[in-house]
Design brief:
58% of the residues lie in helices and 14% in strands. The chain is of the alpha/beta class and 190 residues long. α2 packs across α3, α2 crosses α4 and α6 crosses α7. It is globular, with a radius of gyration of 16 Å. It is built from nine helices and five strands; from the N terminus they run βαβαααβαβαααβα. The longest helix has 15 residues. The protein has a five-stranded parallel sheet with strand order 2-3-1-4-5, with helices on both faces.
């Protein structure tokens, strides 16, 4: 069983690379954004709960996010492993994920961070915003605010996973193929 956490700032290429990695390693791709959208669109109990927080302008509590993720893992009992995309975002979420996986006799195999300079990522997102229709990809100030949030809440995960010898940094600049090759070199050596 291979369980990979893929993280990096918005625009780093996580979604693009996740598509290649899930195919190459036959992993179940779990994107928290996709899971949230699915649950809210289908009015599941967890989706309604998440919506109630979002409608009040609040962040969805970790317990709700974690429960959604656990449900998705439990729906795929025969998976060769999971590619966690967008989760965990905080130390508390990483602790919860570790505890959940340990309860199943599993663990995180490794974490891979796609690293790139903020200015390059801003350009990528502004370019993506021209076709994505996402308002948060069309405003440089909003993009930089997302990076501030990442630096404050998610960057501490680097130390968390370094202590477990599970953190790997990959240069996220180059062609899609070059970045995929760098990622597979890391994953093949886990």
């Amino acid at each position: 069983m291979i369980n990979i956490v893929l993280f990096g700032k918005p625009g780093a290429g996580k979604g693009t690379q996740a598509e290649f990695l899930k195919e190459k390693y036959n992993l179940t791709h779990l994107s928290t954004g996709d899971i949230f959208r699915f649950n809210m669109k289908n009015d599941t109990d967890l989706g309604k709960l998440a919506k109630s927080y979002i409608n009040q302008g609040e962040l969805v509590p970790d317990e709700v996010t974690i429960k959604m993720l656990e449900d998705e893992v439990n729906k795929n009992p025969d998976s060769n492993g999971f590619l966690f995309d967008g989760f965990p975002r905080t130390i508390a979420q990483a602790d919860a994920l570790d505890a959940f996986l340990q309860s199943k006799g599993w663990g995180i195999t490794g974490t891979v961070a796609l690293e790139a300079d903020d200015d390059i990522l801003v350009e990528r997102l502004l370019e993506r915003g021209k076709t994505s229709g996402r308002a948060d990809d069309q405003d440089e100030e909003k993009i930089r605010n997302r990076y501030d949030e990442y630096n404050e809440k998610t960057a501490p995960l680097i130390g968390y996973y370094q202590k477990q010898n599970k953190f790997h940094s990959v240069n996220g600049i180059g062609t899609i193929e070059e970045i995929t090759q760098r990622l597979t070199q890391v994953i093949d050596n886990l």
